[in-house]
Every structure is written in C-alpha cells, then in structure tokens.
Amino acid sequence: MMLFGMIATLAFPLIGFFLITLLGRVLPRPVGGWLACVSVAGAFISAGTVLLTCESSATIGLFNWFEVGNVSAHFSILVDSLSLWMSVMITGVGGLIHVYALGYMKDDVRLNSFFAYFNLFVFFMLVLVLSDSFLGMFIGWEGVGLCSYLLIGFWYETHAYAIAAKKAFVMNRIGDLGFLFAILMMLFFWGTTQFSVVFIQGLGLGAGVLTAMTMGLLIGAVGKSAQIPLFTWLPDAMAGPTPVSALIHAATMVTAGVYLIARSHVLFSGAPLTSLMVVGLGVATAVFGALVALVQRDIKKVLAYSTMSQLGYMVSAAGFGAYSAALFHMTTHAFFKALLFLAAGNVIHGLHGEQDIFKMGGLRKKLPFTFVVFLIGTLAIVGCPPFSGFFSKDAILAEAFAYSRTVFVVLCVVSVMSSFYMFRLLFLTFFGNARYGEKHPHEGALVMQIPLAILAVLATVGGCLDWPQESILTPVLGVTLVVLALSGGVAYFIFGKQVDVLAKQPVSMGYRMLWNKFYVDEVYQRIIVGPFLSLSRGLNQYFEIFLGKLDVVSLRSVRWVGYPFKKMQDGNSGTYILVMTVGILCLLVGLFL
Amino acid sequence: MTYLETIPSEWYLILSAIVFCIGLCGVLIRRNAMSVLMCIEMMLNAVMLLLVAFSGYYRDFSAQIAVFFIMIVAAAEVAVGLVIFSMMFKKTSSIDLDDWGHLKG
Amino acid sequence: MLFWIEKISLVVLVFCVTLVIAMYATLAERKFAAFFQDRIGPDRAGPFGLLQPLADGIKFFFKEEFIPANADRFLFVLGPCLSMIAACMTTAVIPWGHDIVIFGQTMALQIADLNVGVLYLAGVVSLGVYGIMIGGWASNNKYSVLSAIRASSQMISYELAMGLALIALVMHTGSLSLREIVQAQHGGHWNVFFQPLGFLLFLICSFAEANRVPFDLAECETELVGGYHTEYSSMKLGFYLFAEYINMFIASAVMSALYFGGYHFPGLYHIGLSDNSAALVGVGVFFLKIAAFMFFFIWIRWTLPRFRYDQLMRLGWKILLPLAIANMIFTGFLSLLLG
Amino acid sequence: MVTLFLVLSLLTVLSALCVVFTRNLIYSVLSLIVCFFAIAGHYVLLKASFLAVIQVIVYAGAIMVLFLFMLMLMNLNKKAEASKPFSLKVVAVGVCLLVLVALVSIVFLSAPRVCFAPLAPVSGSVSALGPLLFNEYAIPFELTSILFLSAVAGVVMIGSYGKKAKKQ
Prior knowledge:
Largest interface: B-D, 74 and 84 residues
Number of helices of chain C: 12
Structural class of chain B: mainly alpha
Helix content of chain B: over 70%
Shape of chain B: elongated
Number of helices of chain B: 4
Strand content of chain C: under 5%
Number of domains of chain C: 1
Number of domains of chain B: 1
Oligomer: heterotetramer
Order of helices and strands of chain B: HHHH
Strand content of chain B: under 5%
CATH class of chain B: Mainly Alpha
CATH architecture of chain B: Orthogonal Bundle
C-alpha cells in the first residue's frame, strides 16, 4: 500500500508532464491543463492516503543509482511524517493553484507547455522532499530550480523577464554550489548521503568539519529561500505569471531551504556557530524584507518582500531549534501566501495587467469576492487570533522568547511592520477612491474562485493543524490584538481614506533608501558584476593580443607536426587497410610468437 | 580411417590462411571496387572454410549455423555494396576506389 | 568396383537418353508447330522426317566455325559449354524408376540419391544463367549483352518464386531427397493434389527458367535480333538450342517426379507383375508423363504470345512471389494443424 | 582422400590467385566462382552437404550473378583498370606474405593439436542442422532475416534515389 502509494505520488506528475509534453501539439488547449490538474490531484490523493493509513516511517528502495569505488548512491523514498506532510501540502496547494491557473492562463498561447512545466515542478518538488538522501534531494533541488527558471521566463518575449529568469538561475547556482560542497564532503567522509547514515555518523565528526558542512547546507538554503545575501532574485522572479509566484515563489520551492535545515537539524545541532548564523541571517532577512515591503508600489513585489520576511521568520526559527514551529509556519504560510498571491492575481487579471497599487483603490465594491479572500489572507498573515497565522507565528515567537530576548523583540517589531504593510496593501487596493482610470474590473472565472475559497478556508482554520499547548500565548493574545488594531488603524488613517495617495509620498532619505531596497542590487552591480565585467574585458583585450601572437605560433607548430599525419590520411582506403594490416601483423607477432 | 582422421586440422588452417592472405593481397593491390568486394568475399570464404572444418573436427554443428548466418549477411552486404557502387558509377563514371577518395583532407 | 561400373553405365545411359530425347524434341516441336499452323512440317529426311534431327546435327557440325573479331574467344566457347553442362547436371538426382535387380545385384535407377536433392536442383538451376550471361557478354554485341542482362534478372526473379514453391513442397513431404518424395507419392497420393498452387507456380517458373515462350525474353527476335546467341553459329549455336530442349526435358522430369508421382501410376501393384518388369513399366510411365509435359511446353509455345519485359517482372515480383509466400505460409499452417 | 583434398586445395588456391592477379574483371569473377565451387567441394568432403549446396546457391547462384550483372550494366570491359604504384604493390604483397608466414608459423608453433572426440561421425545434413537452427538459434535466425529485409529495403531505396530526383 505504502510502496504503491508513494510510487503513484511520484509517478502521477511525471506521467502528466510526459503526456502533456508529448501530446502538447495534438491535445486541444484546455485538455492539457485539465490533465495536469488531474495528475496533481492523483498525486495528492495517493500521498494523502499514505498519510492517513501509514503510521510508521519507512524507507522504500527504488533502484541503485550508481556505485563508484566505495561511493554508492541508492535512490529510495523516505516515508516519514515530515516528508509525507510536505508532499501532501505540495500536491494540495499545488493542485489548487493548478486549477486557478486553468482560469488565469486560459488565453495564453503556450498553455500546454505552462502546465507541463508545472507538473514537472511538482514532480521535482516531490523528489526533493521524498528522497532519503542528500543526493536525491539535490536532484529535486536542481529540478525545481530549472522549472523556476523556465516559469519565471515563461513570457520570455519581454526582455526584462528573461533577464529576471537568468538572475534567479545564476543566484540559485551560487547556493547550489554550497549544497554541492556539503554533499561532496559527505561523500568524502561516508561514501554515501543517505540520511540514515549521515545523521547517525554526523555527530562523530569534529566540530570544524561539521561547521563547514552545515555552512555549505546553509548557503544552499539561503540561495533557495532567498535569504540575505542571495535574495535579490526573488522580487525579480515576480516577472513570471502569478500562479507561478504563488506556487513556486511563495508556497513551495522557496521553503525548500527551510525544509533542508529542518531535515538536517541533527547536523545543525552539532554546529552552534552555523546555527547562530542561521538565526542571524533569518532575522536580518525578516527585518529587511519587512522594511522594504513598507514602501513598495507593485502589488506582487509587496507580497514578494513579505514572503522574504516570512521566510526569514522560518529560517531563524529553524536556526534556534524550533523546527516544528518553522514547519508549521511554513504550512500556514503556504496557505495564506498562496491565497494572497492568487487574490492579487485576480486583481491583476481584473485590471488587465495593472500591478501598481497606487493605480488601484476602491476595488472592494467591484471585486467583492476577491476582497473577502484577500482580507482573510491579510488577517491570517498579520496573525489575527482566529486565523492560522496567529498560531504559527506565535509558536515561533514563543520559541524565540525562550531563545533570546533580542531576537524576540526584533521579530515582534517585524510582526508589527508586517501588519502595517499588509493593511497598507489592503487599503490601497480595495479602499479609497478608484484610481485605475477607464478600466472595468471584473471577477475571474469560477475555476479561479473555487481554489481561492478553499485556500481561504484553509488559511482560516489551518491553525488547528498544530494547536499550541503552551500557555504563554494567552497574554500574547491581547497584546497582539492591540498591536494589530493600532497598525491597522494607522494604515487606514494614512491610506484608507479617499485622498490622493500620490501626494502623500514622503521624500525623505529613509524613504528613498527603502524604495530602492537599500540599494542592494546597485551594490551588487558595483562591487561584483561591474568589476567582474571590467576584469573580463581587460583580460579579453590582453588575451586578444597575447593569443593573437600565440595562435600563429601554435597554428604553425600544429601544422608542422600534423603534416606527416595528414599525409597518412590521404583518403585512400587502400592505404588505411595496408596500415591496419601492418598493425594486425604486429599484433599477431606480439601475441602469438 | 575416416576423412577427418586422415587430414590433419593444420592443413585446413594453412589452406584457409593462404586463401585469406590472397584475398587480403587483392584488397590491397586492386583499385577496382568490384574486385575489392570480391576479394573480401574470398576472405570471408576462407574463414567460413575454417569454421566448417573445425565443425567437423569438434563435431559441433554450431559452427555450421554460424557459416549459414555469415552467408546471409554476406549476401546482404554484397547487394548493398553493389548498389552503392552502381550509384557511384552513375555519378562519377568510374569504379575506381582511388577516384572516390572524398575523405581526403 | 561394381558400384562404379553401375554408376558410370547409368550416367552414360542417362546422358544418351537425354541427348536423344532432346534431339527428337526438336523434331516434335517442328512437327507440332506445323500441326498447329496447319502445315506438314519436315518430312524429307527419312519416314515422316524421323531422320531430320540427324541431318540438323550434321549440318551444325559442318558449318563454318565463326567467332567475331572482338569477341573474347575463350568465353565465347565457354558460354555454350556451360549451358550444356548446367542443363545435364540436373539429371543426376532424378529417380527414373524403382530399383531393379540384375544378377542378384540391386541397382538403383538414380545416379545419386542426395539427401539435399531438392536444394541441389535449385542450385543447378541457378547456374543455368551463366551460360547465357557469358555467351551474351563474350559476343561483344550490344543486343547480346542486353539479352544477357534480361536473362539474368529474369532468372533471379523467377528462381525466388520457384524456390518458395519447392519449400512448400518440402514442408509437405518432409524430405529433401527426390527419391523419398517420389516414394511418398505411391498409391495415387500425388503431390499435385496437395500442392495445386505450388505446382502452378512451379510450372510457370520452369517456363521462365527454361527460357520458353511466353518467357523467352532473352532471345526475342523482334527486339534483340535473336538475343544472346545472335553471334553464334555451327555447333556452339547447336549447344545453346540443345540446352534449351534438355532444360525442357529436365523441367518436365522434375515436375513429373515432384508433383505427378514420378514412376508411380495407379494400379501398379494390382496387375501382378514381377518386380523388375514393374520397375520397367514404371520407367515407361515416367517417360510418358515427361512426354506429356513436353507436349504441354510445345503447345504453350505455339499458343501464347510473349510477355513484355515489364509485365514479366511484374508477374514475377508482384504476383508469383506473394502467391508463393502465401502458399508456403498456408502449407506450414496446415501441417502444424494436421501434423 | 588425401589426393582429393590436395586437388581441391590446389584448385582453390590457383583460382584465388587468378581472381587477384587477372586484369580482366570477368575472368576474376569466373575464377572466383571456381574458387567457391572448390570450397563447396571441401564442404562436401567435410560432410557438410547442406552448406555445400547453400554455398553454390548463394555464392555461385546469386552473389556472383549479381557481380556479373553489375559488370555488364557498367560495361567495364573496355576500361583498363588503373593500377596502383608499383612500390605500393610490392609493399602490399610483402605485407600479405608476412601475414601468411606469421599465421602459418602460429599454426605450427602454438596451435594445440585437435583431439578427436570419440564419437560416431555425423554429417551436417538438413535434419541435423534444422532443429539446431530453429530451436537454439531461432532468434539470431529471425534477426538475420530482419537484417536481410532491411538490406533489401536499403538497396531499393538507394537504387531509386536518382529516379525520384528526376521525376521532381
């Protein structure tokens, strides 16, 4: 049952991918999309069945990948509560987003290839979470990177989008290098990357080695989960279609880093220095994301920076050992962030591609359904008590309180900031005067609304999944509510009224700093890309001259050396056979005489 | 004394070697593609003779089956080879292998 | 020693009989041709013209030996010889009658009972083309070469269908030895009843292999001025013509042996003859069957027009070959079901 | 028996030499046919009668006819074959002789003597080969037929290449 279920889970999206790819040209347009939805639904059902029926964890060996010397790699599926829960979440949320994408992408010319990429992404994500070794995980890791690249650049006709895809790809490669480094270290020490071996023998290593290994893993996680300093690709990745942002860049792929840290927590617990760095990076990213999100004007960019900030939350939680809290937040975040992105997608769809929130406003009446679900998502993300975000966020905060007061305070401030920017987004979009000109906003099709409704329900009740036992929350509850009310009120006071928001733009230096995202991109451009380019140009010029001389010399010498050989290759088969015969003669004499 | 007991196996080895080397010589010194193909057939036959002889000496029919297969493949090879020659002849009005040296660099 | 005497005398006998029959086949052909065309035919040499073949032979021997200037002399002579040799070789495996007992010695009326007799037939038939090809080529005459090319492609094409028909027959009888095939047909179990389609295919193909009308494309006078033997004269021409009649005789003998029971005839064992005389009667019956087939050959020649070359090829590849394959598959299927 | 072997071998070698050293292609073909017949004779002596007949049918009856056919189609008798440079010929013959010497000395120096299995001599008749061919070697047999079929298809395709171009 378990074996069959797990193989079915993996097989459904892969078969879907192959079917859509192979039959993409013959299938009528919507069928490819439905096929994709059905395959993900099948994977969801099989993963869910396994989750409900199987109590124990197990390893299912699939095949022996390769064996070189004493290095061996088996490909097997690890079935435990973490991997099962992750697969159910991926296929569930993924399935809903698939259905949503049916409506959102229905006019796109390359609909079938979009869904093929989507299915492939789900497959690789499942490989990532189900694999029982770091090597297998790396396959999935690279695979989702590939799909992310393909989907960010899905509308590659626009040059900027292609650039964004390239940027995401390159930055992810930096992270992957760290991951690969860690894998090579494991192979060097143990000859295998199976979790079962690594986690048992991991702590036997010296602290220095362990720190280096976990640093590698951390770099990988930082790249994938868009933490400081490898985060700049995530906001740019919003170039992709909105379902892509929802699925890959909010709900699933970017949480892979958190999953990686949570999965290898045994190693991290043996390397306190790295854990400290994890916390530091996480907190810094949370603060940074929240700060930048305060002033952004693009609806998807706000959500992207908010995602970054939330990921910082999770990463720091994983850093100070609150793995279950981190994963819990990851789940609820998947619900409400997918919801928010899809609702934002509805807005964009309704406004025919408009993404600037200063050119929205007053959509509450025009898009009532979207407003309601967006409101639910906002309440969930800011941590309003009955909604899921409250439980998960406060679980992290509780753990943070136990870990360090400083971290706790900073995270609380981030929380406040996040509620402010979310309310700002909500009010700018749905309240106030309509600033979208002559456009006629409309709700999306039914296929776009049903997934939203389901996600809204999940974002509301998702907190029940892991009801916190600790009583620390009770005093927090009141504080939270007060803070929420305050920040919401401020936001409403500034942005909610029917005033000309553009006039209210402050022009202070701090604002410019935030608006330009602390100039990180520019700094990268100056200190990394620029010098690299000029170095390349210099080397190019230098080598141009040097090699220009060199190639004449080498050409002549090669020609001189090759002359006798050229004479041998006279194109006459008789000569070849003669030479061959002489060779055979030599062999005969050498071997037998 | 049966036939195989009167004739030592070395005789067949030597006969086959002689025919093989004559064929090889033909491949090397002839320029006509048809002659070369014929000489290759001759070399094949030398090997087949050896197989059949040893099939007799070892009382094993598998070698004869192998010879049977070689004949089939040789027939296919000749058919394909000859049609290629005829097309080349149409194109270059020559059957000379040295004229077909397009591999020459 | 006795064995060799027996075999050599049999070979000489068969050779002489073959030559005589071929000689008189020419006379028969002319007589029948005359009959079909409402003429009298040769009647000057001997009673009813019976000495005509001898007269022809003498004429062939005494004509001028002419070899074209640019012809390859050796090949020019080799061609007709090969034709004759290939034609005569087939007689080696044909069983002419039951064993007879002379002076207490059993003597088989067959030169060699090969266990691959049918394959031997196919092999020798495939050699028949060399005489025509070499003769045509050596004449250094473009009509002759064209004829040689035609003859070779025709023979190769029809050999396939013929071989497949033979294979179906072999599948039916389960033996490659002609003697066993004939023995298996005693009591009226003639193969023609079990392999009607195979017989028809074999018949058509033997017309083609013997270069007889309607398949005599190699020597069609209207297009090729006489074909491969345009340049031939005297006895070399005689050899070619002779070879054609021998081929006809052999084809008739093979068909009688393979499909019409050979020396068997219904009622052989009921008329109460001694073994030796029964065997001799069997031989007579066999020659009667052969004569009937030869008459059929001649009859067809003076009845049907000649095929066009493309029609010939189409018939061979697109009709006879598929039919032969179907026949073979059907036979195999049937023997699987019944056997 | 020994005489028979020697005569056949002499015929084989002489006709083989004739194939290589005759300038006239048609004589080459004829000598090769003689060579194949001699080898078929060897097969008969070795009691491989089936292979002997097949050798005649396939080589003499089909392959060499094809060669003759092509010779006639290309009308090659007039063109004297250009010969390779004399030095190259000498080298080639020398190398071949060396290979022959090497092979013969290998036969005499290192080949293990063949021991006879004490079995009754059996002949390679059809009834002996048939079961082997259609049971143990059934798959190779089918594969060769597929190979042959594809060769036929290839020949037809190559042969009709020019025709199509002309039609278009």
